[in-house]
Write a structure and sequence with these properties.
This protein is α/β, with parallel strands linked by helices and 689 residues long. It folds into three domains: 2-190, 3-Layer(aba) Sandwich (Rossmann fold); 208-369, 3-Layer(aba) Sandwich (Rossmann fold), CATH 3.40.50.2000; 423-676, Spore Coat Polysaccharide Biosynthesis Protein SpsA, Chain A, CATH 3.90.550.10. Helices cover 41% and strands 18% of the residues. Strands 17, 18, 19, 20, 21, 22, 23, 24 and 25 form a nine-stranded mixed β-sheet that branches. An eight-stranded mixed β-sheet has the order 3-4-2-1-5-6-7-8, sandwiched between helices. Strands 13-10-9-14-15-16 form a six-stranded parallel β-sheet, sandwiched between helices. The chain is elongated. The two termini are 57 Å apart.
Length: 689
């Protein structure tokens, strides 16, 4: 089997949980004769580099800003890079049988967006996500600011990766239950992570407790120390060794180690508590051998390698119930589990248990864990799952929205009209004759789609524009020109939509252009998915600017906070637009297309974005959007909300938190970067310091 693995961690540069998993898993795959390629980011490089290690191909690449895509922040750019290099190697080596990726940081989000928008190279790939520890689960537990961009957006990318994959593997039932609670309509198969058990014989238990892991809030270090501090005041006999790296403690604005050193200064002086810092595996093994028991107080764990390592060294583990360890620790038999209320009692019990009983529990722990994480056992389970996914992999009829919008009606399928064209392109026009022929030329290049093109002139007064319209009527037999009195952009779009005869509808402003592939891709998506009502794409600026404007699926709550795509160039199911998306002429100062999209979303008509720059957006000094000012923007956002109160009230909590974390909408550019308000906060903080 040809297997590709996408990971952010791979030895020798990393030694964490994801790196451990990636290293052991790929070794097992190659030992069984599979052709394996690992894709891993490596920012020490200046260009992509391929190496071979024990029949394993490793593709390392830096997360550089691709020309034209400087608008992408680090996390979104990283996801783009994974898809970019997967595409490159598919073209060079052919497609793999299956791709596995982590969900963490959403590195597969761009690849899966391409797959689910039916990109010819990606649509038939079988993609499996093996879940580790998603940020959108960890950050709230860590008390990190969950609504601050771009961290919030990384969470959205992770959610999409989990929902859009062909299959998901969770290493524990605990993680599966957690993700099901977060994502709702979500399925996963539980397969443990593999681990290689050391061959050395376990030593007799020592006389100290051992904590291994990052000194981090979500690892439960603070509740553990608080409990032990009270016990030590009552002459509790067991001291604690802490082995692990530092982390940032968000609520206090300092490192966790510094906070602990300040708060538990007395206990450190008394040698009850010793902070050792991170260690190499050989040094850590010595600490396992000297420990009486290993304490795992985490507030969340997916599949804790600390528990696995400790048990494999024949050590009894006292662990919280909040994690995958509850899958394999049998209370009182091969270890102990505790709740927040029972931690002190369990610690006191440890001090009373005889050494012989500790040794017996440790031996049982080693036997049990050897079976659970046996690499060959895990390999057989995973290969059977891969085979099932490869056989059943297909693009379902429902697009995997992160938050499907529930409505009181079934979203309509487009009504087939008796028309020779599949798509009607409406070009609203007012005094833009200078650019109009350029726009029509871009439509001439469209392949594979039968078009009905209509220009709706909104009472142009410019001589060049009027003359250009007459020229078009003479020279472009397939283009229909309609004239009406001046009423504004919204009414002009609506006029064209109401007389369109095709089942699909697109708007194209008279100074913009489209890529020849845009409409074919958009119509394929609209015809394939029952729950997709409109399609957009990334935009590429031209004339006064050459940048790319990346766009995102417009899902609440973010789409209510800030428009994530260029809504002037969408492709719709005509009946859905006529029913719910007609532009509101009262939006006379702009954003009529954004308000139209919000109204579609409010009625359950959702849309997707093709992550390719298919919409060519002309940047000119006299455009309507350049006329926006602060008062104008605040008024338009107010009107959009007032015209769609139900959907805004449905997401009011998220919207308030997004506004508090990132500032008003008009400061936004795209969600993959921090907003300007963060720069202001940083400057104020520096001034105070």
């Amino acid at each position: 089997m040809k297997i590709w693995l996408l990971t952010t961690e791979f030895p020798p540069h990393f030694g964490g949980g994801i790196a451990t998993y990636s290293d052991i898993t790929t070794r097992v795959w190659t030992e069984h004769g599979h052709e394996v390629t690992v894709f891993v980011v490596d920012n020490t490089l200046e260009a992509m580099h391929v190496s071979w290690e024990n029949r394993l191909q490793i593709v390392r690449f830096p997360n550089l800003s691709t020309p034209g895509l400087q608008a992408l922040g680090y996390g979104a750019r990283l996801s783009y890079q994974y898809a970019y290099w997967v595409r490159h190697f598919i073209r060079h080596d052919g497609p793999p049988d299956i791709i596995e990726s982590q969900e963490f940081s959403g590195i597969a989000a761009h690849l899966l967006q391409l797959k689910r928008t039916l990109d010819p190279i990606f649509r038939d790939l079988a993609v499996v996500i093996t879940a580790h520890s998603p940020k959108f689960v960890l950050d709230p537990i860590e008390r990190a600011p969950t609504y601050t961009l771009p961290n919030y957006w990384l969470g959205e990318m992770e959610r999409f990766s989990l929902k859009a994959a062909d299959g998901t593997i969770c290493p524990s039932n605990y993680l599966k239950r957690t993700l099901t609670g977060e994502l709702g309509d979500f399925e996963a198969t539980v397969i443990a992570n593999p681990y290689i058990i050391p061959t050395t014989s376990p030593k007799d238990p020592g006389e100290r407790l051992l904590y291994v892991g990052r000194i981090q809030y979500l690892k439960g270090i603070l509740p553990l120390l608080e409990t032990l501090s009270h016990l030590w005041q009552r002459n509790y006999p067991l001291s604690l060794d802490v082995v692990g790296g530092d982390s940032f403690f968000h609520p206090r604005g300092m490192s966790m180690r510094t906070f602990i050193e300040q708060r538990y200064h007395r206990e450190i002086q008394q040698k009850k508590l010793t902070l050792h810092g991170p260690m190499q595996p050989r040094q850590l093994a010595d600490f396992y051998d000297r420990a009486k028991a290993v304490v795992l107080p985490s507030l969340f764990e997916n599949f804790p390698y600390v528990a696995i390592e400790a048990m494999s060294h024949g050590r009894a583990v006292l662990a919280s119930e909040s994690g995958g360890q509850s899958d394999f620790i049998r209370h009182g038999i091969n270890g102990w589990l505790f709740t927040p209320q029972s931690l002190a009692e369990r610690l006191e019990d440890l001090a009373q248990i005889p050494q012989a009983q500790f040794k017996g529990i440790g031996e049982q722990a080693r036997r049990d864990v050897m079976d659970i994480v046996d690499p060959n056992r895990v390999y057989n389970q995973k290969m059977a799952y891969f085979e099932d996914i490869i056989k059943s992999s297909q693009n379902p009829r429902h697009f995997p929205f992160v938050r499907p919008i529930r409505t009181n009606f079934a979203v309509m399928k487009p009504i087939s009209r008796s028309a020779s064209a599949l798509l009607t392109v409406v070009i609203p026009h007012y005094n833009l004759g200078t650019y109009l022929l350029d726009t029509l030329d871009s439509l001439q290049a469209v392949q594979g789609v039968s078009l009905e093109v209509m220009i709706v002139d909104d009472g142009s007064t410019d001589g060049i524009s009027i003359a250009t319209l007459y020229r078009i009527q003479r020279q472009y037999a397939h283009v229909h020109v309609f004239r009406k009195a001046n009423e504004g952009l919204a009414a002009t779009r609506n006029y064209g939509a109401k007389i369109a005869s095709s089942p699909y509808l697109a708007f194209l402003d008279a100074d913009d252009r489209i890529d020849p592939d845009y409409y074919a891709r958009a119509l394929a998506i609209l015809e394939h998915y029952d729950n997709v009502s409109f399609v957009g794409s990334w935009s590429k600026y031209f004339q006064d600017n050459q940048a790319i404007w990346p766009a995102w699926n417009p899902e609440p709550p973010y789409a209510l906070y800030h428009n994530p795509l260029n809504t002037s160039g969408l492709v719709y199911k005509t009946e859905h637009f006529l029913q719910y998306g007609l532009n509101d002429p009262q939006m006379e100062y702009g954003m009529e297309d954004y308000e139209s999209m919000i109204r579609l979303l409010a009625h359950g008509c959702q849309g997707v974005v093709i992550p390719e720059p298919y919409f060519l957006y002309r940047i000119r000094e006299d455009s309507m959007s350049r006329g926006f000012n602060m008062d104008n923007l605040m008024l338009l956002y107010q009107w959009v909300m007032e015209k769609n109160p139900e959907i805004y009230s449905r997401y009011h909590k998220d919207l308030i938190l997004l506004l508090n974390a990132n500032g008003p909408q008009y400061l936004m550019d795209n969600p993959t970067w921090p907003t300007y308000i963060h720069e202001i906060a940083q400057r104020k903080s520096e001034l105070k310091d």
